[in-house]
Amino acid sequence: MSRGYKIYALRRVLQALVVILLAYVFTFIVISVLPGDPVTNTLRNPQNGFTEEEITSIVAYYGLDRPVYVQLWESLSRFVTGELGVSLRSGRPVSDLIGEVLPSTIVLALSALAVALVLAFAIGFGTRYLPRRYGQGVLRAFPSLFLSVPNYVIGLLLINVFAFQLGAFRVIDAEGGLATLFAAIALGIPVSARVAEVLIANLDHEADQEYAAVARSRGLGQTRLFLRHLLKPSSLPVVTVIALTVGELLGGAVITEKIFGRTGIGSLVERSVTTQDLPVLQAVVALAAVIFVVVNLVADLVYPLLDPRVRFGDGRSDDRKPGGRPPGGRPPGGRPPGDRKEVTA
Amino acid sequence: MAPQDRLTLDRVTTATVLNVTGLSVSYGPHQVVSDVSFSLRRGESLALIGESGSGKSTIARSVLRLLPRSGRAEGVVDFAGQDVLSLPEKRFRPLRGRSIGFVPQDPSHALNPVRTVGSQALEAAALAGEPSRERVLDAFAQVGLDDPRRVFGSYPHQLSGGMLQRVLIGLTVLPRPRLIVADEPTSALDVTIQKRILDLLSQLRQDLDISLLLITHDLAIAAERADSLVVLKDGVVQESGDTAAVFTAPASAYAERLHADVPALNPDRYEHLRTVPDESEAKIRVSGVTKSFGDLKAVDDVSLAVGAGETHALVGESGSGKTTTIRLLLGLEAPDSGSITVAGEEVTGRTHRDLRAVRRHLQLVYQNPFTSLDPTWTVGRLVGESLDRYRVGTRAERAGRVREALDAVGLSPDLVSRRPSALSGGQRQRVAIARSLVLRPDVIVLDEPTSALDVTVQAGIVEVLLSLQAELGLTYVFVSHDLALVRQLAHTVSVMHRGRIVESGPVKTVFDSPREPYTRALVESVPAGVKGLR
């Protein structure tokens, strides 16, 4: 592994840490400027019957009487050591609450991602090798169609058709295999649109490249051209897109879990919002930021290893990002002509 | 391939390999090739010559059946007794590679960038029925690659253009095709590499008895390498026949003009336009300038002096340090050591603001007019930009100077409201020249100003540059890899090699009796037209 890559990797990791901390601070500030303090609201609720002294002592216990920046500092230092606090509603540690629901959401998100990839690559292959009428017209419209239909509509349609009309799965048994599959389809379809868009554009671009024509001129057939030549360069940028869709998967999970009656991060968020359970909300937002940043970090670190063209050069390019990966991105093409060296031939 | 096809192929051995009759190609409603006919005999070579848009590449792609989906070809392309255009895909595919080989224009884009050269070579060898690593390494050695094993394990971007073109030629000849279609096989390469690649093609053609269909814009190359020529313009054949006949006594006006515009064939064409420079005063003085990037010494102890009204050419291959030298001259990079003065003022060690004053006297015309002009700006704004930047005169005066500059480069003032996309390549480069003229600089740096243009367009630009020099006493620093053009245009020349100036002096002296072996190699690489006429 080159020195250039190590410097790049170190820089990305540090950036990622900063982003996570900033996200935490930002959430803290947003929550603290919101009108209505849920703790005092609860305490002052006449039904709970706390006396003024008790209230003061509890508030002091939680440190809520101190200036916001002190609270922020304490909250931040607890977060750094992995301490997420205690739920205001249930009195249980937030990490326990999240730990209970996280696996279910992860299963859903990963299945949705699998669905999205299968669908996207099927569409990508189809746009090139189905007969032109279907491939070009109909399939190319799919990504825009998928993007324009909200995933709750897809979810409701799936439930209506497959659960109620065909009885393929039971809505009550939300965690069953088939139920998970259909939830994953609802969540995965919009994500597949993003992947397919990039994939189709890249396939078109790669198919127009001179090397594709040269490979054909040697007698290579269409299928092998797709599998051996077009697929890899076209799917490299998909790594970036997948990382960017993590946000969509997490956000979509909230709605999808509600519709399909699953317990997961989504249902936890929903409950915490309605009950103003701020420690839980703060922790979930921080968790989402961590997941998003980590996945994108991994994508950034893996990409240069997958694409042989990304180079970490000499002193000149140390300051730059490795060649490619603009958003939605295409890897860097050939070097500019001025850069090419003709030493031996 | 069915056995009877083999038989047909084998029977047609001595006669014509490729016979194109009445070929017309259109993209949608636009017909780009009209009624083209020619034939190529076994073991011979034929060159299709023409400028961009002449349809020469389209013809090549029709023969290979590699036209884009929108392309429609009519007529007959008879290859060894079979009509290529009407064969079903299944029957044509076995001909691809095995009987008809293809060498593309730009080798750096002709291999899959994310797969190793070796894996693609093995794939090609498998299609040719010989999927062995040894066979591929042999083929690489045959085309003169020094280290076949390293090439085998490399990715395309790790090899130079010349090496890649050798790889591609090696893979093309591996199945022993009867015909090779080479589409501008050397136009993306440096001159010395260009010569070696063309020599290699000629050599293989003789050794392996392969016919060659050479597509080129360069009449000198065509004349040197082909037995017969077909001259195309706008998709129509202007003239065709034996090379010596077409070359020495062109019958059509277009072929004659093409001949006159090729710099290699007319070294003294612009003699009457050339001015005598004023040697007493050095406009530009570069002394002992060195610039390194990491371990690479891009410019190594370079010194040169250019007099007022002189055209000084910097020649050398890619990576020789030409571009870095002019970037230093323009103050875009700072030298590690040495000094540069322009019109008596030091360029090095200045602050940014200070440098602006110098830059006013020092303008750049960039290589590629298709990328150097902002497509959203009008011609008037493009040309007038530096006037606005330096707040020269009133608005009316500036508009007047823009018109003046356009007039000086031979463009109509009506063009001020147009955008670059509405202009041709030649017009765009004239706009770029007008843009550099408008501040009335002393020195213009011309970075390969015509390399993206056709020869006839290039001739027009050269005339503009020379008459501007005569009129305004401009000093040019002219960067080029085209030695023939340098011979026509420049007074003095510096030959650069690996960051150093290896030889310099008056153009005629340096080119007619080069002292250094490197200069000699460069000069000898210039195609001189028909063999024996040099």
Automatic annotation (TrEMBL), chain A:
Gene3D superfamilies to which the protein is assigned, alphabetical: MetI-like (1.10.3720.10)
Biased composition (Basic and acidic residues): 313-322
Keyword line: Cell membrane, Membrane, Transmembrane, Transmembrane helix, Transport
Membrane topology reported for the UniProt record: Multi-pass membrane protein
Biased composition annotated in UniProt, kind: Pro residues: 324-335
InterPro entries, A to Z: BPD_transp_1_N, MetI-like, MetI-like_sf
Pfam families registered for this protein in UniProt: BPD_transp_1, BPD_transp_1_N
Entry annotated with the keyword DNA repair: no
Residue ranges of the TM segments: 12-34, 106-130, 142-164, 176-196, 236-260, 280-306
Domain of life, source organism: Bacteria
Sequence ranges assigned to domain ABC transmembrane type-1 in this UniProt record: 102-303
Compartmental location: Cell membrane
Family per record: Belongs to the binding-protein-dependent transport system permease family.
Protein name: ABC transporter permease
TrEMBL record, chain B:
Xref: Pfam families: ABC_tran (PF00005), oligo_HPY (PF08352)
GO molecular function, one term: ATP binding
Keyword vocabulary terms for this entry: ATP-binding, Nucleotide-binding, Transport
Keyword Transmembrane helix: no
Residue intervals passing through the bilayer: none
Keyword Zinc in annotation: no
Signal peptide per UniProt: none
Annotated protein name in UniProt: ABC transporter ATP-binding protein
The organism of origin for this protein: Lentzea cavernae
